[in-house]
Amino acid sequence: GTITDLDLSDREQQVLHLLCQARTNHQIARQMNVAETTVKTHVSALIGKLGVQDRVGAVVYALRNGLV
Length: 68
Prior knowledge:
Blueprint: H1 3-6, H2 10-19, H3 25-32, H4 36-50, H5 55-64
Helix pairs in contact: 2-4, 3-4, 4-5
């Protein structure tokens, strides 16, 4: 489905974009100006919403489905 179908928050979309640029949680946290634990929460939410196993799966899903 599209990003709308997945009901991703703006923050989750931003995290997904940064994951697709091979950024670490630490780098994402710095760029978004949030705590690393917050990034981990977003990543976990993405994994759940996308129905994938891990962050690599989230990146693959995003690229295959044109989300980024």
